[in-house]
Amino acid sequence: MSQLKNVEARILQCLQNKFLARYVSLPNQNKIWTVTVSPELRDRTPLVMVHGFGGGVGLWILNMDSLSTRRTLHTFDLLGFGRSSRPTFPRDPEGAEDEFVTSIETWRESMGIPSMILLGHSLGGFLATSYSIKYPDRVKHLILVDPWGFPLRPTDPSQIRAPPTWVKAVASVLGRSNPLAVLRVAGPWGPGLVQRFRPDFKRKFADFFDDDTISEYIYHCNAQNPSGETAFKAMMESFGWARRPMLERIHLIRKDVPITMIYGANTWIDTSTGKKVKLQRPDSYVRDLEIEGASHHVYADQPHIFNAVVEEICDSVD
Q1: Name one GO biological process term (predicted).
Q2: Can you tell me the distance from the alpha carbon of 211 to that of 204, in angstroms, rounded to the nearest whole number?
Q3: Residue 205's Cα: distance from chain center in Å?
Q4: Which residues pair with 263 in a beta bridge?
Q5: Nearest-angstrom CA–CA distance, 233 and 146
Q6: CA 208 – CA 260 distance, rounded (Å)
Q7: Which stretches does DSSP call E strand in the chain?
Q8: For residue 162, which of 268, 80, 254 has the smallest C-alpha distance?
């Protein structure tokens, strides 16, 4: 954990705006590692950002300053990931999902946030949607960035988009262990393994880091007890599909909660989901858009465009 703390500190040093990083204690003794940027801007609805599988607060570094110029931004390590507590999750998909959602709500209560603009990427998008079903009063606008776990798995293999090489590599070990077990087995060679399978991450963050900082960060986020990872495995049918697909439940979000779905034009995620959500919610605001030149990690592939889109959405709230 100390190595993760050190590499994250190097990342957060890039922030220009005032920020506060600390643990938020939950009633059940778990702790959520939280970074708040521009805490002094209290007049507008805060933006809360939820990272994806295997990630953490550091991966938002290309977005934090821009998105906190006019409002407070909160981001946190999901329970079971990054520097947050790593409890034992329920082994069934509904129980694991509910544990994540409950932790987000108790975090919100502990933070004293009345309502928020809630943004989730990948797994974070899935959980942000589940949260919005259960706690619609707390969500002013739901922003889903390349959300995982929405569509039902097609019965026709030809309808499935070919996943990138790293997804295939992760999927190859799923039957035997947790998704990122290979990183823990690699030990000190772990950061090099991240760089080998995901060389694109170094390119994405090249404006800030010309070394292996991001690869080290991703490795140390995932080299610990695989708590959230085990929960994710319980929730998925296979790496790209959820056991409880969100498209079957999206209509349960209250009609007055607006939704914007942002995809990378080159993502491996099924972008037709946005159109299907519109059909599920005919009397609600649903907007979907694609960002050219971006893959699954839209926020890092095209950060300037992504930040401008999110700022526009936030300004429409207040």
Answers
A1: phosphatidic acid biosynthetic process
A2: 12
A3: 17
A4: 290
A5: 19
A6: 29
A7: 19-25, 31-37, 47-50, 73-76, 116-121, 139-145, 236-238, 241-242, 259-264, 286-291
A8: 268
For 110-148, what is each residue's pLDDT tens digit? 999 999 999 999 999 999 999 999 999 999 999 999 999
Q: How far apart are CA 19 and CA 64, in angstroms?
A: 10
Residues 169-178: contacts with CB under 8 Å, at least 24 apart? 169/197, 170/239, 171/238, 171/239, 174/233, 174/238, 174/239, 178/226, 178/229, 178/230, 178/233
* Tokens linked to 282: 């005919």
Return the residue matching tokens 């990122």.
180
At 12, list the tokens: 């957060």
Q: Which of 163, 160, 107, 166 is nearest to 135 (CA)?
A: 107
Residue pLDDT, tens place only, 216-241 = 898 889 888 899 999 999 999 876 79
Q: How many CB atoms lie within 10 A of CB 220?
A: 25
Alpha-carbon distance 223 to 182, whole Å?
9
